[in-house]
Every structure is written in structure tokens, then in C-alpha cells.
Design goal:
Shape: globular
Helix content: 40-55%
Radius of gyration: 17 Å
Strand order of the largest sheet: 2-1-3-4-5
Bound molecules: CO-5-methoxybenzimidazolylcobamide
Order of helices and strands: HHHHEHEHEHEHEH
Number of helices: 9
Amino acid sequence: MDLKKLYQDVVDGNAPEVQAGVKAALEAGIGAEEILGSGLIAAMAEVGQRYEEGDLFVPEMLIAARAMQAGLHILKPYLAKDDVKAAGIVAIGTVKGDLHDIGKNLVAMMLEGSGYEVRDLGVDVAPDAFVKAAQEGAQLIGMSALLTTTMSNMEVTVQALKAAGLRDSVKVFIGGAPVTQDYADKIGADGFAADASSATRMAHQLIG
Ligand code: B1M
């Protein structure tokens, strides 16, 4: 079997078919990482591109995102079978003003699969909520942003951690489509990860 139908079902936003397709691909022996990369993530990239070109609109983007989340739910137990068990508490969230959570959820899933305790703060997370998570024991703060207009809230959060006197006791890492290593350096974050597996490696480096 190939992943073309699964890919198309994500683009079309057909959640029940996406779930069935992920199950069938797993049963056919296709690896979880390949299903994720070539089926789910590649399809969302097409959705983004078609939105940019004016061929799809926000409701279609949302329906495709729901279908992808449905597929991720099935894949979750198969992802991140990492043998390195690291003790550590990570608080993760999508920054204020930003509602995109698929990438953040994926990073959270992989971290959990690698043995971290993950405190998921959700989306539209205010700087104060990240500060509170650090006060409540998170050793690593992960921030996700998908919009160029919300990225600046990562810097605001780093500043809020500093103002609360917590910057030296907590590590900060960031990611999301518009985020770069240069940006991480500029705002004083400790790390940047381009995708969910490098996010796990980054966590190992920072606190593992
Ligand atoms: Co929106 N959206 N969206 N959207 N959306 C983008 C991001 C966009 C690039 C589309 C486009 O124009 N091509 C564009 C942003 C443009 C920009 O800022 N430059 C955009 C826009 C404009 C908008 C709205 C403003 C549209 C509108 O209302 N007019 C609006 C904003 C709402 C808001 O947040 N306030 C909006 C809304 C939405 C939906 C709600 C419809 C939906 C989100 C549903 C949801 O998340 N539950 C949605 C979607 C689905 C997308 C696209 C199509 C897909 C995003 C996605 O889930 N990708 C996206 C286009 C695109 O990215 N190609 C787009 C799959 C996911 C696995 O990848 O999130 O990149 P990603 O995560 C990766 C890495 O980035 C990284 O690892 C992940 C796994 O590999 N990563 C991290 C992510 N976070 C990390 C954190 C880390 C480390 C790594 O450490 C902590």
C-alpha cells in the first residue's frame, strides 16, 4: 500500500478515513515516522500552500487540521519509541495570540514518549502562564508559534521569566514554522528545534 489515499484524505479533511488509513498503514508495516512525514505532515503542507494561493479557505484548513489530529491520535502510541528515559518536567504551549496546536501537540507527544513529564499549557498562552509553570517546577519551557505576528510573544515571555527572577533556573526552547535559530539567539532562548524529533534531542541536551 502507498500513502497517497491517506494524504488526500487529510487534504480533503475526511477524519474517519484518515483514522482508517493510519490503522491500515500500520497494519501494512509502514513505520509511524513515515506515515507522519509522507502522509500527514506533507498533506498539511499542501493545505497551507493552497490556502496561500487562495484555493482553500480557513474552514477547509480547520477541517484538514481536525482530520490530521484524528490520525495523530492513532499514531501517538507508535511515535517516539525512544529508549533514552530522561527525567524532567517540560511545560509547553503555543504563545499568546496563536491558536495553532498541531505542531505543539506533536512535540508534546514525542517528549512524553521519551520519558518527560509534559505539562501542556494549550494555545494562546500568556507570558504569565509560562512564568507560573516555571514557578511550579517546570525545568524546561517550550514555546511554539506559527504566525510571524505572534513570534514576538516568545521574546516577551523570555523577558517575563527574567523579570520573575527565573531565567537562570529554567531552560527555554522554541519552534514553529516561522521560527529560526537566529531568532532563538536574538531573543535569548536556550535552543531552537525545527521539528518534533529534534525537539526531543534538544530537551535531552538541555535537561536530560
Ligand atoms: Co493557519 N496559518 N491561520 N490555521 N495554518 C499558517 C501557519 C500559514 C503559514 C498558512 C499560509 O498562509 N500558508 C499562515 C501564517 C502566515 C504567517 O504568519 N507568516 C496562517 C494564517 C495566516 C492563519 C490565520 C491568520 C488565518 C485567518 O484567520 N485569516 C489564522 C490565525 C489564527 C490564530 O492562530 N490566531 C489561522 C488559523 C488556522 C486554523 C485554525 C484554521 C488551523 C489550525 C488548527 C490547529 O492547529 N488546531 C490552521 C492551519 C492548519 C494552518 C497550516 C495549514 C498548517 C499548520 C500545521 O498544523 N502544520 C499552516 C500552513 C503551514 O504551516 N504550511 C497555517 C503541521 C504541523 C505538524 O507543522 O505546526 O509547523 P508545524 O509544526 C512542526 C514544526 O514547526 C515544529 O515541529 C512540528 C512537527 O514537525 N514545531 C516545533 C512546532 N512547534 C514547535 C515547538 C518546539 C519545537 C518544534 O519547541 C517548543
